[in-house]
From TrEMBL, chains A, B:
Any Pfam family matching the protein: ACT_9
ACT domain sequence ranges: 278-357, 359-422
The keyword Nucleotide-binding belongs to this UniProt entry's keyword annotation: yes
InterPro entries, alphabetized: AceGlu_kinase-like_sf, ACT-like_dom_sf, ACT_Aspartokinase, ACT_dom, AKii-LysC-BS, Asp/Glu/Uridylate_kinase, Asp_kin_monofn, Asp_kinase
Entry EC no(s): 2.7.2.4
Entry's family note: Belongs to the aspartokinase family.
GO MF, one example: aspartate kinase activity
Reaction it catalyzes: L-aspartate + ATP = 4-phospho-L-aspartate + ADP
Name by which UniProt lists this protein: Aspartokinase
Keywords: Amino-acid biosynthesis, ATP-binding, Kinase, Lysine biosynthesis, Nucleotide-binding, Transferase
Gene3D superfamilies: Acetylglutamate kinase-like, VC0802-like
Pathway the protein acts in: Amino-acid biosynthesis; L-lysine biosynthesis via DAP pathway; (S)-tetrahydrodipicolinate from L-aspartate: step 1/4; Amino-acid biosynthesis; L-threonine biosynthesis; L-threonine from L-aspartate: step 1/5; Amino-acid biosynthesis; L-methionine biosynthesis via de novo pathway; L-homoserine from L-aspartate: step 1/3
Length: 422, 422
């Protein structure tokens, strides 16, 4: 008998039939004696429909106040789905009440369309829970100091659910999605990929930032910061599966140092095909060149990921970095127009046919030789490494795009990720 | 240079193209130097769509909390259309901000789905107006003392607009609809019907209660109570018509006693085909029979309109009244089952093929002979009057349905309503 938060995504809320299934699943948990808080997303397609209408009306260059109105607009999707879910819960014979973000004081800053949660007042929700009600709270939105509605950006309902779980000191936050957990790698690339029963929130952060789309990265940060046990599980299992079984399904994202010695050093293989590589060749090797090059790129609002600078030779060096593939052409033009002339570099070359493959694992912190094993495995497969980037819990390499699947499968096997763990 | 409230119905907000036209019309008024507050309805069809989803999910017998959730749901339609209008106004180069009912403290009671406005805090709106912003306020909704969202019932946006105009002491509230004003009678029945330039709010109340659907009756009550000048005009004129012309168009509902001696005694002919007549025949004429009959009807939640009791003859009388046609069968069954046996009446007879025709005019109060002129005109047309009901500003007759058009046209002509007034 615990306080449990359920979060359901837009697909799970996509029709009245699906909303009815969500209500039945929540009712099962409530009848098992749990105090239930549910955070639903808008019905799938609804947010896009609303923002599409806004786009038809918006001026070419939106001025002051535009983003405030977008949030007024977009927040209605979650308010509607929350009310519908409360109605469906009532049809299951439960007492249920829905609240918009402002009604339970989900306080955020005023950064419209990408606000950050600052605090949540749990008083009203606790009173309802104590009175035996299921409480539905809109995801994705809050209210700022001035009483304006804000939204948290795409995927913000994940963050709402975790923040609400943190405020209520919930036993666990269950995020129901269209996947049944976090995998050692994408099963479409490696059929032997296994679901992880647990993953540390730091590993999950790396997975998320490396392109795994299971959870919004901010929700994982929040879970880590407030130590909210967060479980990812499938909303496509029948609603009436055994609750004990369901409570153990999916992947649990933990925030405690794993004391389990059997835990694998590497937890998963992530990959990302969305980047492109740019090299500035023959740069005079003198202080300030990194700033000279990357400052110009940053000024154009282009995000840079992996950066390497080769050893200098004859007073000149090559400087390489990766950007999102969508920014590639703009970045190359910018460098040719503004940086090449003033820097005295020889040339700008680029490559969009690359990919980034990463091994992720909290165990890497204390294990030497993990990175070198990765390089050996790739070398044995004849894969040339173009760039390397490392952190405490991941090692990433940039390689030719055509070797991506081969690299992922070889690494998955080499680090025994296809073997069941205890 | 005045403070003006515009209200736009769902049809006027029905597409982004129409919302753009509303924005252009409001911008025209703002550029003429007026302080503008706009109250839009939800986009046409949206409220029905939302309530349709709720109906699919709702239990057969909705329990506690159901109507609260319906209001959470339905209120999103106006919030979305308000935000879209603010975005469209910004696209016209204006500063604009939209507020939901709770944000400007449109305080109501807690009667979900049919709440009544209790107060509006004008502070925030005034600050925006003084800063040169156009303020968009959601119609149809408010917030109760407990911070729950409420709605005012169908057509509630009219009431919202008038209440907001009252709170802000607006110069005028302009209600843009799909008709261009209030007519002396329905032009589909009498092609010579004329648009009234002004009509008193008491006359408008009678018109509204007699089936004219131009304005929700509560908005007229509100306008009368708070003396808000209320104008009904068309939203289908081109947005760029001359503002001086537009400001004088439509029909102005006034709250001041009309000092104009040229004003006609009768302002309009209203009619209603939705009623049915029921007669209880041979009722023993003793105290309490009206209560005995109508009490039973009222207990069954059936509303009664016109009531007459014939002169007694041989200690027995006939008692007749009208109900809404939808309630007719139920009322007759009820009377036959419960009232006939205990009352000792002879029979219950009824007629659904009747209609009610009324002459309405504030001038009737001080003019004798208006009602008798009505009866003479009908008599000259060979129309038999079945029932009569009078009030200070209207006289209604119940007649055979087949004479309705004839009666309306004859009265319209007899009271010179086809003649232009000064």
């Amino acid at each position: 008998m615990a306080l449990i938060v359920h979060k359901y995504g837009g697909t799970s809320m996509g029709s009245t039939e699906r909303i009815r299934n969500v209500a039945k699943r929540v009712a099962k948990w409530a009848r098992a004696g749990h105090q239930m808080v549910v955070v639903p997303s808008a019905m799938s397609g609804e947010t896009n429909r609303l923002l599409g209408l806004a786009k038809e009306l918006a001026p070419a260059t939106p001025g002051a106040g535009h983003y405030r109105e977008l949030d007024m607009l977009a927040s209605t999707g979650e308010q509607a789905s929350s009310a519908l879910l409360a109605i469906a819960l009532q049809a299951e014979g439960l007492e249920a009440v829905s609240y918009a973000g402002w009604q339970v004081q989900v306080k955020t800053d005023s950064a419209y369309t990408k606000a950050r949660i600052e605090s949540i007042d749990d008083e009203r929700v606790r009173a309802d829970l104590d009175a035996g009600r299921v409480v539905v709270i809109t995801g994705f939105q809050g209210v700022d100091e001035g009483g304006n509605i804000t939204t948290l950006g795409r995927g913000g309902s994940d963050t709402s659910a975790v923040a609400i779980a943190a405020a209520l000191k919930a036993h666990e936050c269950l995020t129901f999605t269209d996947v049944d957990g976090v995998y050692t790698t994408d099963p479409r690339v490696e059929p032997d990929a296994r679901r992880l029963k647990t993953v540390s929130f730091e590993e999950m952060l790396e997975m998320a930032s490396l392109g795994s789309k299971v959870l919004q990265i901010r929700s994982v940060e929040f879970a880590g910061k407030y130590k909210v046990p967060l479980r990812v599980l499938s909303s496509f299992t029948p609603w009436d599966i055994d609750i004990e079984e369901e409570a153990k399904s999916g992947t649990l994202i933990t925030f405690e140092e794993d004391e389990n010695m059997e835990k694998a050093v590497v937890s998963g293989i992530a990959f990302n095909r969305d980047e492109a590589k740019i090299s500035v060749l023959g740069v005079p090797d003198k202080p300030g060149i990194a700033y000279h090059i990357l400052g110009a790129v940053a000024d154009a609002n282009i995000e840079v990921d992996v950066i390497i600078q080769n050893l200098s030779k004859d007073g000149r060096t090559d400087f390489s970095f990766t950007v999102h593939r969508n920014d590639y052409a703009r970045a190359v033009d910018l460098l040719k127009d503004k940086v090449l002339p003033t820097l005295g570099a020889a040339d700008i070359v680029g490559d969009t046919k690359i990919c980034k493959v990463s091994i992720v694992g909290i165990g890497m912190r204390s294990h030497v030789g993990v990175a070198s094993k990765m390089f050996r495995v790739l070398s044995e497969e004849g894969i040339n490494i173009q760039m390397i980037s490392t952190s405490e819990i991941k090692t990433s390499v940039v390689i030719d795009e055509k070797y991506m699947e081969l690299a992922v499968r070889a690494l998955h096997k080499a680090f025994d990720l296809d073997q069941p763990t205890a």
